[in-house]
Amino acid sequence: MRVALALVLCGLLAAHGTRRKSLSPDGAIAACVIGLLTFTNGNWGVSSTLLVFYLSSSRLTKYGHDRKVKLEDGHAEGGQRDAIQVFSNGFTGAALSALYIVTCSDSVRSFMEEVFQGKRLLADCDGQWRTMLLVAYVSHYACCNADTWSSELGILAKRPPRLITAPWRSVPPGTNGGVTLMGLSASLGGGLAVGATMALSFLAQSAFTPSIVATESGSQWSMVLFWVAVGGVTGVFGSVLDSVFGATLQMSLYDGDRKKVVDARKLRGRKKSDLRHISGVDVLDNNQVNFLSSLVTAVAAGMLYQLYVLSANT
């Protein structure tokens, strides 16, 4: 039943994305794969977090589209996301959701024991392990959402951005690693939105199926504050980390004739010598930076939570 509902929801979102031109055809297929691994998770917060990220990022990508096209080279028509973009932002989250399903779903564990003739291949899924996976999951999407909000709103700021690795330098809008106060504020909002989504989902699910939701001891308000704090902190951290990677490992060039920042890997026949170098070296592209920053944020948050639990128990 859960798989059938997941397939229906994936189909609806893919159709919505292609109709609104927020997803390319291959992007819609990739979104279905990510969605299926997410919506089959029994935790409401896991599904809700993906929905909030998808819907808010799609809307903000379209916001100020005409101005973004003038400032940024390669801004997709209608803000469409292709399969590579979808996987770079969703693969880690989908992998964490799949790991949660395999290790914490009673039905999956029972099925595996039947297949392997009663052998227990997995340790018990205790609250600490469950919460660590969710912390990593929330941190991943907090990073992705914060970076998207920061990028899509920060480029529209009236004041020129500053290079995050050299804040005394003003750089053109659209420069990888360029930050503004508006963008940093947006990153905080994006992270808080993800954290609040997880917290509210926990409250809603616990009201209907309290046995499914494993939370730390304490009041519901402390749980809400915990998830909101996780989202806010990891959102800003991930967005800043993304900017640092962009300023150092992505090459930003400026086309004086077209008056816009161009991608060093998409020069369309022009030579790099014809353009002004702003920052960075050509090691990663934007999708690789997004994947790396969200992965590092998720792993770091999960490890920090484990260290916190260990220190609290000693």
TrEMBL record:
<feature type="signal peptide">
    <location>
        <begin position="1"/>
        <end position="17"/>
    </location>
</feature>
<keyword id="KW-0812">Transmembrane</keyword>
<comment type="similarity">
    <text>Belongs to the TMEM19 family.</text>
</comment>
<feature type="transmembrane region" description="Helical">
    <location>
        <begin position="179"/>
        <end position="204"/>
    </location>
</feature>
<dbReference type="InterPro" id="IPR002794">
    <property type="entry name" value="DUF92_TMEM19"/>
</dbReference>
<feature type="transmembrane region" description="Helical">
    <location>
        <begin position="289"/>
        <end position="308"/>
    </location>
</feature>
<keyword id="KW-0472">Membrane</keyword>
<dbReference type="Pfam" id="PF01940">
    <property type="entry name" value="DUF92"/>
</dbReference>
<feature type="transmembrane region" description="Helical">
    <location>
        <begin position="224"/>
        <end position="249"/>
    </location>
</feature>
<keyword id="KW-1133">Transmembrane helix</keyword>
<protein>
    <recommendedName>
        <fullName>DUF92-domain-containing protein</fullName>
    </recommendedName>
</protein>
<keyword id="KW-0732">Signal</keyword>
<dbReference type="GO" id="GO:0016020">
    <property type="term" value="C:membrane"/>
</dbReference>
